[in-house]
Amino acid sequence: MEAGIVGLPNVGKSTLFNALTSSQGAESANYPFCTIEPNEGIVPVPDPRLDIISSHITTQKVIPAILKLVDIAGIVKGASEGEGLGNKFLSHIREVDAILQVVRCFEDDDVIHVSGKVDPIDDIEIIEAELMLADIQTLENALNKAERTARSGDKEAKATVEVVQKCLTHLGEDKPLRSLGLYESEIKYVHSYGLLTLKPVLYVANVAEDDLAGEAELVQRVRQYAAEVNAGVVHVCARLEAEIAELDEEDQQEMLESVGLAEPSLASLAREAYSTLGLQSYFTAGEKEVRAWTVPIGATAPQAAGVIHTDFERGFIRAEVFSLDDLVELGSEKEIRTAGRLRVEGKAYEIRDGDICHFLFNV
User: Fold this and answer.
1) In the chain, N or C terminus with fewer CB closer than 10 Å?
2) CA–CA gap between residue 208 and residue 241 (Å, rounded)
3) What is the torsion angle, in degrees rounded to the nearest 10, for the CA atoms of residue 191, residue 99, residue 88 and residue 66?
4) How many CA atoms lie within 13 A of 83 on its CB side?
């Protein structure tokens, strides 16, 4: 699972990506299309529960969950018609599972805005319009093919035609597909098209260094818009986060304290992106490592075991599960077992966020 960072040129998305991945390259010039090929990075997802577990279970190392990010070149108005590097940008977005849209919520005369003014809602609507136009093109092409097949009496094709027409009607009302509320039984007919506005979105408000709390009017407008379309919002100061990312741990803490932050804002961004992708963590804990494993919300115990190794899923017998609360209260896994608080779960069990698991299998 991966998220793509998108935005208009010069909103700070590459600065944000570099800060997230701590991969500082040469400074890019202050003009559109400075990122041509998407950059990819792996970002740890900060989780204080790992520290709590390792304080009760002695271990050699602690491994957090990770998130894959793709920095996609800036989109411009007309991308769906090939403006700028439009088609290439859109194809890169098509490959990711969620969209992190960076919107500029700061004024700076030295950083040129591609539209000539700072208006985050206008930025959001430009990109949303381009993604909707691209989806319309995709669906119209798909409809022609599905209708031809449906004439032969093919039931799958007939169902596809119905869902595609439903999607086109919604897009025709200037509404993204994520707000249509398609059932899983409907999504399967359009899943292969890689529809852009069906992907979940998280808005990232890039704020000025004098608005680290994200209280400025521009940010409030983004929050209001996001609430109306049922999307999440996080605010970060990409420039400051890039500076913090370059420091060692001790200097980072000193700088955070000096600006009144408990942790880098990138930590909350990583967690929100993780959630936007529909992901959750469960843990394994032992002498060698305490580790967070990533699974989709709703994953069953065998599916969760398969993330560790395919043999674990293939030969799944049962899962032994306890909670972080049990560990904090009783102090050790041994005491949890003694108290009868260790749960034995079978193949139908759906993993809960924060479960601490042992899997028994036989192949």
Assistant:
1) C
2) 11
3) -100
4) 15
